[in-house]
Records
---
Amino acid sequence: MLTLFDLLLLTLFALAGIWFWRAQEAREHALRATRQHCQREAVDLLDQTVALKKVWLRRDASQRLRLWRLYQFEFTVTGGERYTGHTEMLGPRVLRIELPPHRFVSEAPEERLH
């Protein structure tokens, strides 16, 4: 026989599982978007991962309350320097991906290292 307390515990575990599942989906979406952005900007995403730094509640354009997430990642241009970038998401949408000022490597043939 299930008591009310048992049902409450089952509900809490189910909600925690759903929240964890949705958080993993959001992280995977942020990682895909970050990889694509790094390819377009000709930088290398280090460790092939993003790390959750902040979570907050914010309203979207239609005034619905959504989870706002800020992910951090590291990238390099030269292979010797690491830079930290950020991917900002609101619900399932990527709001922006920021790369700080970083070194630019020229593709001119006379400047390439052999």
---
Amino acid sequence: MSIFEIIMLVCFGAAWPLSIYKSYTSRSTKGKSASFLVVILIGYAAGIMHKIFHQYDGVVYLYLLNFLMVLTDLLIYLRNSRLAAKTLEMP
């Protein structure tokens, strides 16, 4: 277990709750990129796989927590995209 890996994950993870809150309340996709969120998910998934198969320790839970927060943000992005599409359809 590396203290530097823990610090990195805590710092990265600290930003996601605010991002999720803003996405949810704004009901907009402005300033968001689904492809960026997917790339971040892939990175966290790779970190999780590394921890499971090569160096299992408690840090895997930080990777998992960050993965779930980014996934939540992506799901809200998709919801907001649908809301925007419905708004455009209305006369």
